[in-house]
Amino acid sequence: MGLKAALSxxxxxxxxxxxxxxxxxxxxxxxxxxxxxxxxxxxxKFGKDHEFDKIHSVKEFKEKxxxxxxxxLKIYFDAVRKGENNVLWPGKPIYLSKTSGTTxxxxxxxxxKESIPFHIKAARDSILHYILRTGSTGFVNGKMIFLQxxxxxxxxxxxxxxxxxGIVAHHVPAYLQRNRMPSFSANCIEDWEEKxxxxxxxxxxxxxxxxxxxxxxxxxxxxxLIEISGKETIKDxxxxxxxxxxxxxxxxPYRQSMEKLMGRSVDSIELYPASEGFxxxxxxxxxxxLLLLLDGGLYYEFIPAEEYGTEGAKRLALDEVELNKxxxxxxxxxxxxxxxxxxxxxxxxxxxxxxxxxxxxxxxxTSAFGEHVIAEEVEEAIAFxxxxxxxxxxxxxxxxxIQVEGELPYHEWMIxxxxxxxxxxLISRELDEKMCILNPYYKDLIEGKVxxxxxxxxxxxxxxxxxxxxxxxxxGQNKLPRLSNNREIADHKAFMQE
Length: 498
Known about the structure:
Blueprint: H1 3-23, H2 26-41, H3 45-49, H4 58-64, H5 74-81, E1 95-100, E2 106-111, H6 116-134, H7 138-141, E3 143-146, E4 161-162, H8 164-169, H9 174-177, E5 180-181, H10 184-187, H11 192-203, E6 208-212, H12 215-229, H13 234-237, E7 243-247, H14 252-262, E8 267-274, E9 277-281, E10 290-292, E11 298-304, E12 327-333, E13 340-351, E14 354-361, E15 365-366, E16 373-374, H15 375-389, E17 393-401, E18 410-417, H16 424-438, H17 440-447, E19 455-458, H18 463-470
Parallel strand pairs: 1-4, 3-5, 3-6, 6-7, 7-8, 18-19
Antiparallel strand pairs: 1-2, 8-9, 9-10, 10-14, 11-12, 12-13, 13-14, 15-16, 17-18
C-alpha cells in the first residue's frame, strides 16, 4: 500500500466526522448559509436594488426577491460579464462558467473566490465517503482519468471564461496531479471525436483505476478503446479499473450497456455538480439518493412542480418538504445567484439526512395531449426494457407524433441500439405497458383511444452523436434532452432514414 492510500482512511474518517456536524444539524446549517449570503448581498447592486438592508428573515427575502431564471436576470449577468464590480456578489467573479442552455442560448454563470473551493471540496468528500464506507484505497495510487471539457480559458473578455469541468481542472489538488490523465494537450482538443481518439491512445496502456465523466461520453471512450485495442471488454484493457464516478444524467438507462462494455460490474459514485454550485453526492450505497450539501454556500428553496409558473406558488424551505414529491430546485449562492431557478426537478427520498434524486428538467416533458410525461418516467421505462431484453441501448429521445394521416397520434421513441433487436414489436408493447403503469394520464389516453400505443424508431448507429455534433454539443458537459413537446429533435436530418 502506497503512502497516499495509507493516509486516505484516517483522513476520510476525519472529514466524514467533520461533515456530520452539518448533516446532523441541517436547518441550522441552512440558516447560517442564508445569513452569510444576505450579509454579503447587501454590498452589491443586486442587494441595493432589492433592499437587502431590510431583509432579516427568509419571509422578507421571499417578499423582496422573486424566483427568476437566467433570462429574467440577464441585465445583472451581462453587467458581471462586462467586468463591473459588486453586481451580484462583492467584487468580481474569478471565472464565468459558460453553459449551453437547453432552454435558451449560452449562459455565463459566475464562479467566485468563495464558491470555487466548495466545488473541489464536494468532489473530494464524495470519494472520502466511499473510501470510509468500503475500505477500498487501491485507486488512490493508480491512474485516474476525468473526461471533461477543455481546460483552456477564454481571456478575451473581462472575466476568464470556460466550461465548468475545464475550470475545475485548474484546481485539482496537487496530490492528484501526478496520477491524473489525460495530458493537458489531449484535454485541450476541441473536437470531441478527435479528443476521445487521442485520449484513448494515450491511456490505452496505462494502469487506469478510476474513470470519471458523463455516462454517454464515457461509453464513447470505452467503445474507442475496444476498437483500437482489439480487446473484447474494458476489463481486458484496464484490469485494475475499480471505480466509476459520474454525474449529469441518470445512469440507469446506460448501466446495462456500460457493464457489457466493461465486462463486469464496477463500483460507482454519483455526483450532482452544476455551474451554479455542487448540490449533492452519493454518500452511501444501501439506499437511493444523493446527500444534499447544506454547508456548501448554497441556500435552497423548493417549489412544488405542480405549482411551478403559477401565481402564488409556494417556496418551501428544507423543513417544509415531503418525501417523493417533485420540486423545482431554486438556489441562492455565494457566487451571487439569488432565488435562481436552475430548471432541475428533484425528489426527496430521505429527510434524515436529507437525500434527493434528480427527477428531470421542469421544461423537458412531453404533454401534447395533457399526459405530462417526465424524464424520471421515461428513464425508468427504458431501464426496465434494457434490462429485461439485454438490449444495450445507447441513447434515446421521446417526441409526440401529432399529425398522422389516417391514424391516431402517438409517442415516438427514437432509440439507438447497440445491435438491432429481433422483435421490436414485443419491445414496443412492453415499453408501452410500463409507461401505462408509470403514468396514469398516459394510460387513460391509450385506453380512451386518444393516442395509439407508442412506436419505436430505431436510430442508425451514431445518429445521436451526429445530431449533437451538428449542434456543437458533442461531448463535455452537454446532454441530450430525453423528452420534447415538439419535433425539433425528432425531425432533424441526422435521423432521416438512409
